[in-house]
UniProtKB/TrEMBL annotation:
Matching InterPro entries: Emycin_Estase, Hydrolase/PRTase-associated, UCP036794_erythomycin
UniProt protein name: Protein-L-isoaspartate O-methyltransferase
Regions that span the bilayer: none
GO terms under biological process: methylation; response to antibiotic
Top-level taxon: Bacteria
Keywords from the UniProt entry: Methyltransferase, Transferase
Coiled-coil segments on the chain, per record: none
Length: 426
């Protein structure tokens, strides 16, 4: 392949982010991606960008590709709602559903410590931290019950009916999904009724607004997780769309809760934040939160930044639910986007899509690497690459020539794990 010269900016230190902050402008939503769930530099650069967005542009919360109940523990910690003496390591141990390393790691611990320090300072905006994902069906139902035990009324009854409906499946989403694949009766009616009753009662008796929002969100997770597990059994892209639709619904609710001037930072895999219309996902009928946000808020109000690297190491697993390990990431496939950037010189680079669109080759579909929680470096030749029109999928791209594996905590996983829910490239 003949490599054309691409316009790029150096990426060596935090000051090099100035041009990115200028390019973000007045966007209300900034989504920061990653090309794997186990690369240290993706987390550290997203932290550096997030700090500047909070300090310089008034962003008010971070929402991530994580479960709502676990991430809400971080939110409580950084807002000072936890008992005195609680440490960040105590909070991150809540992330005990595989893959534990995604949020139970030292890179996230550093971000959480900074957020707490920011919130503890007087006369500063109090930043929130939330999970967008849909997997925590049982945890969410349990959080609802704990909240409602402090209240009287029909909402408690509705929650108990929902629990009764799910009870035969022994807290196993996979068993539930298999069962409803063969019968018409399921728990959707019960969880929707619970959500409606909960919202009604809380409007009548408003208390702590964020505690109310937390309870409502757990009910919404129960509704959409129930739909997700059913769609997962049927196969195809429908479960993916349920999941990203839930993420978008949650983002909308968070923006509404924090007010009309609120600004959001999103941390997710490139496969979620990069506009799906400019990849082969579109042919499969799949959408993602990046596409949905652009459609709902306007492209000028949503800024999408992708990440990638040429080689290095990563934390991942050989198979679903298997122990995590440090793996080598081989040099990128010849002719790929990462290979192109490496051959322009082995330096870290920041590329802006408004400049990339001037290069004809960059406007074509190019193979772009994506590493999931399950990874086999020996299969790089056959998979792990998404055909992508880079300057349309993203508004900016941060390229890191060589990267290192994430530094995870050692957290014991729960005995029962949800079934495989991440596609191979995510």
């Amino acid at each position: 392949m003949t490599y054309s010269k691409l316009p790029y900016h150096r990426l060596e230190n935090k000051a090099d982010l100035d041009i990115l902050l200028d390019d973000i402008g007045d966007a209300r939503i900034v989504m920061l991606g990653e090309a794997s769930h186990g690369t240290s530099e993706y987390y550290s650069w997203r932290t550096a960008i997030s700090k500047r967005l909070i300090e310089e542009k008034g962003f008010i919360f971070i929402a991530v590709e994580g479960d709502w109940p676990d991430c809400y523990q971080i939110n409580k910690f950084i807002r000072g709602y936890c008992k005195p003496g609680t440490k960040v390591s105590d909070i991150l141990k809540h992330f005990n559903r595989w893959p534990t390393w995604m949020w139970g790691n030292w890179e996230v611990a550093a971000l959480v410590e900074w957020l707490k320090e920011n919130n503890d300072r007087p006369n500063t905006n109090k930043i929130g931290f939330y999970g967008l994902d849909v997997y925590s069906l049982w945890d969410s139902l349990q959080h609802i019950m704990k909240y409602l035990e402090k209240k009287d009324g029909h909402a408690v009854k509705a929650a108990k009916e929902a629990f009764k409906c799910f009870e035969p499946y022994s807290s196993d989403p996979q068993e539930y999904a298999r069962a409803v694949a063969y019968v018409s009766e399921d728990c959707e009616e019960e969880v929707i009724s619970m959500l409606q009753e909960l919202g009604k009662r809380e409007r009548e008796e408003p208390g702590n607004p964020e505690a109310v929002f937390d309870a409502e969100q757990n009910a919404l997770v129960a509704v959409n997780a129930e739909r997700y597990y059913k769609a997962m059994i049927k196969g195809g892209g429908s479960s993916w769309n349920v999941r990203d639709g839930h993420m978008m619904e949650t983002l909308n609710r968070l923006l509404e809760f924090h007010g009309p001037n609120s600004k959001a930072i999103i941390w997710e895999h490139n496969t979620h934040i990069g506009d799906a219309r400019f990849t082969d996902m579109a042919r499969a009928g799949m959408v993602n939160i990046g596409q949905l946000a652009r459609e709902q808020y306007g492209r000028e109000n949503v800024y999408l930044a992708g990440f990638g690297s040429y080689e290095g190491s990563v934390i991942a697993s050989d198979s679903w639910g298997a122990p995590m390990k440090k793996m080598e990431v081989p040099p990128a496939r010849k002719g790929s986007w990462e290979d192109w950037l490496h051959n322009l010189g082995g330096t870290d680079k920041l590329l802006l899509s408004r400049e990339l669109r001037e290069v004809e080759e960059a406007r074509q579909q190019i193979a772009h690497r994506a590493i999931g929680v399950v990874y086999d470096p020996n299969r790089e030749k056959y998979g792990n690459y998404v055909p992508t029109i880079i300057p349309e999928r993203y508004d900016a791209f941060l390229y890191l020539d060589e990267t290192e594996a994430l530094r995870p905590f050692i957290v014991k996983t729960k005995e029962k794990e949800p079934p495989e829910m991440y596609p191979a490239n995510e």
